[in-house]
Structure formats: C-alpha cells, structure tokens
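Key result, reporting period 2: structure in, sequence out.
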C-alpha cells in the first residue's frame, strides 16, 4: 500500500508531476472520483490533480482564505492547528488510501508531519523551480509582488529541507521544473522507476500529453478564462458554493476570494 506525496511550492510543476503519476497508474484523486476531479482552471488548464478532501483539510488547518499565495499566514501556528485536526486527518486518509495512491497539494508542505505517521509506506517527491520563475508565474496568476513571492518561496524551501532532514528513512525523489517540462520522457522514466511501475505505451502517451509548451498553455488558460467570464453568474455561484463546501463562511472572506478570482480571470482573458 504505497503512497506517493508530491511536495513543492505553488507554480513549481507539482500539478504536472501529479498528473504524470495519475496517468502512470497511481491514483492521485479520491476513490470513485468524478471525471472532472483534476480541476482544470484558467490558471492551470491541464488540471491540478488534487484530492479535494485533502485540499479542504489543509485549508482548514491553515485557516486559508483561498486568495492566492501570500505571507500573512500564521506560519508558526500551523503545527498546533494540524495536531488539533488529527481525527479529521485520520478519517480522510482512511477513506482515500488504496494499493497505489497519493496526493498533491502545495500546502501539504506545512501539514505533512501530521499526515506521515498515519500513512502506510509513504514516498516523497520533491519538485523545485527557480524562485525568479516562481515569482513571475505568481505575478501572472495572482498579481503577487516579487518580494512577497520570494519570501514565501524561501519559506517553502526551508520547510522542504526540514522535511528531508527529519525523514531520511522515507524514499524520496527530487525533480526540477525544468526537467519535468523540458525532458518529460526522462521524468516519466524516473517516476516509473521510483514507483516500481511498468507503464503501457498508452499510459506513457497520456502522461506525455499533459506537458505542453508555454504558448499553448497560455492559450488554453485564456480560453478557459473567457468561458468563465461568459457564464459569470453561474461561475460565481460555483465559486461561492465551493468556498462554503471548504468551510469558508465569512462573508468578507467570500467577497475577497470572489474579487480575487474575478481580477485574475480578467487578467488571464486578455
């Protein structure tokens, strides 16, 4: 019952790695998931490949309002908050685990210590990207300034290093964004070897199809953003319903998230 956990900063290629694992045969979503569980969005048109149950739980632990990546989270309180959600973590993991499974959510970098003792045979996959490239990508998606982006990226890097130091016994694979996007075939070989998989040609082709060039990715994102704007009332209703489902019931927080999404969507549509 091996579990593969993809860890890395936002905009670092974790979605692509999770998607590759999923296409190779590692179930990265919930059991009996709907076909759209991968979560295509204008900011990530190939899909996030995130388990919504774990994303929801991480959001509760971090008290995260959903408005992008920023540095005003109460970082030092996260370990105590994670411990207070031990029962929920146990319940989500037991309902999700399987023979060959895993998950990806960048925020897991800060909650993983409460998950690991409850995971059978964990394997860690660290994904890294140049901080300047992360900053540029965050600016395009959220309008996050370079200084704030670098501070948050450094915080993620420090925590990733700490996880590796605390758990040398856990099998680990390190990947870089540039290799994932620039050499996807080699990345697939490394992932398959790490997970002891023998993928079929069809599985390899499906995994390779997730990696597209930057211009294609932006064109797909622009198309999705325009589609969301064309159905704005329906999209806004979906956004509010999602936030309520994730436990974000503060009207001010709902408004901040809706405004943040609208600004980002307008920026991506042009």
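The corresponding designed sequence is given below.
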């Amino acid at each position: 019952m091996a579990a593969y956990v993809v860890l890395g900063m936002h905009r670092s290629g974790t979605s692509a790695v999770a998607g590759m694992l999923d296409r190779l045969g590692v179930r990265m979503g919930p059991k009996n998931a709907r076909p759209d569980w991968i979560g295509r969005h204008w900011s990530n048109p190939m899909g996030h490949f995130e388990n919504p149950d774990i994303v929801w739980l991480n959001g509760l632990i971090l008290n995260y309002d959903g408005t992008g990546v920023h540095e005003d989270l109460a970082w030092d309180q996260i370990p105590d908050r994670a411990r207070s959600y031990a029962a929920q973590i146990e319940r989500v993991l037991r309902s999700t685990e399987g023979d060959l499974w895993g998950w990806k959510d960048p925020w897991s970098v800060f909650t993983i210590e409460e998950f690991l003792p409850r995971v059978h045979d964990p394997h860690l996959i660290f994904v890294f990207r140049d901080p300047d490239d992360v900053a540029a990508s965050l600016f395009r998606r959220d309008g996050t300034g370079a200084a704030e982006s670098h501070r948050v990226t450094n915080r993620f890097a420090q925590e990733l290093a700490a996880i590796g130091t605390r758990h040398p016994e856990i099998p680990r694979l390190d990947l870089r964004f540039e290799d994932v996007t620039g050499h996807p075939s080699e990345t697939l070989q490394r992932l398959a070897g790490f997970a002891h998989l023998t993928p079929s040609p069809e599985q390899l082709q499906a995994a390779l199809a997730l990696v597209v060039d930057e211009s294609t990715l932006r064109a797909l994102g622009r198309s999705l953003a325009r589609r969301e704007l064309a159905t704005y009332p329906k999209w806004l209703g979906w956004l509010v319903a999602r936030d309520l489902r994730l436990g974000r019931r503060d009207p001010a927080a709902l408004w901040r998230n809706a405004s943040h999404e609208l600004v980002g969507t307008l920026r991506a549509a042009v």
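The mean pLDDT is 89. The beta strands are 2-8, 100-104, 122-128, 172-176. This case is discussed further under Risks and Mitigation.
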